Amino acid sequence: MNDPVLDVRGLARSFTQGGQTIEVLRGVDLSVRPGEIVALLGPSGSGKSTLLQAVGLLEGGFSGSIRIAGEEATSLDAQGRTVMRRDRLGFVYQFHHLLPDFSAVENVVLPLLVRNASARDAEERAATLLTALGLGHRLTHRPSQLSGGEQQRVAVARALANRPALVLADEPTGNLDEHTADVVLAEFLRLVREEGSAALVATHNERLALKMDRLVRLHEGQLQ
């Protein structure tokens, strides 16, 4: 059996507020296999975003182990975490965070250039991904010229540009109406599978979560 692309053990995070200690994560254990798409289900405030921030190496202050593609990430220094995020991880958020002055294809090209791809290869890769998401006719449009669903598709293409081992998605359709959310999620799942990546997708929507390979529930900082 293939080793997990993500293996989290004993992950915990707490903070002090008003003289009280609040435990956000309480000993979370979670594995995601290569190519597997896992839904992380839970209500607002359950710790989903905190867990994704930990796995995404975006925050400190956690205890426990986070192994990504077989490498212990918690022991990395700042530069090592940056390289890990660049080479192994892709991110999709509720809000697309596209650069407003860049076209759709330029937004997807940027992470490829950061990884030292040639301009030609980067443009070909970006155009291929966007075309696969039905945006072949919108390559030169800026975010303000795209619908909400189209903007989120560009964000999906950007997340997959560097062929990450693991995509982390935090409420990726939470800012869309139900019909558009269904369409964008279907495109997201299809492309992640075609690219051979794994994904951990945080959502409060059980209907959408049931469309993924496996569902885990986070409640009061613990997986159920």
From TrEMBL:
<dbReference type="InterPro" id="IPR027417">
    <property type="entry name" value="P-loop_NTPase"/>
</dbReference>
<dbReference type="InterPro" id="IPR017911">
    <property type="entry name" value="MacB-like_ATP-bd"/>
</dbReference>
<comment type="similarity">
    <text>Belongs to the ABC transporter superfamily. Macrolide exporter (TC 3.A.1.122) family.</text>
</comment>
<keyword id="KW-0067">ATP-binding</keyword>
<dbReference type="GO" id="GO:0044874">
    <property type="term" value="P:lipoprotein localization to outer membrane"/>
</dbReference>
<dbReference type="GO" id="GO:0098796">
    <property type="term" value="C:membrane protein complex"/>
</dbReference>
<dbReference type="GO" id="GO:0089705">
    <property type="term" value="P:protein localization to outer membrane"/>
</dbReference>
<keyword id="KW-0547">Nucleotide-binding</keyword>
<dbReference type="InterPro" id="IPR003593">
    <property type="entry name" value="AAA+_ATPase"/>
</dbReference>
<keyword id="KW-0378">Hydrolase</keyword>
<dbReference type="Pfam" id="PF00005">
    <property type="entry name" value="ABC_tran"/>
</dbReference>
<protein>
    <submittedName>
        <fullName>Lipoprotein-releasing system ATP-binding protein</fullName>
        <ecNumber>3.6.3.-</ecNumber>
    </submittedName>
</protein>
<dbReference type="GO" id="GO:0005524">
    <property type="term" value="F:ATP binding"/>
</dbReference>
<keyword id="KW-0813">Transport</keyword>
<dbReference type="InterPro" id="IPR015854">
    <property type="entry name" value="ABC_transpr_LolD-like"/>
</dbReference>
<keyword id="KW-1003">Cell membrane</keyword>
<dbReference type="GO" id="GO:0022857">
    <property type="term" value="F:transmembrane transporter activity"/>
</dbReference>
<keyword id="KW-0997">Cell inner membrane</keyword>
<dbReference type="GO" id="GO:0005886">
    <property type="term" value="C:plasma membrane"/>
</dbReference>
<feature type="domain" description="ABC transporter">
    <location>
        <begin position="6"/>
        <end position="224"/>
    </location>
</feature>
<dbReference type="GO" id="GO:0016887">
    <property type="term" value="F:ATP hydrolysis activity"/>
</dbReference>
<dbReference type="InterPro" id="IPR017871">
    <property type="entry name" value="ABC_transporter-like_CS"/>
</dbReference>
<keyword id="KW-0472">Membrane</keyword>
<dbReference type="InterPro" id="IPR003439">
    <property type="entry name" value="ABC_transporter-like_ATP-bd"/>
</dbReference>
<keyword id="KW-0449">Lipoprotein</keyword>
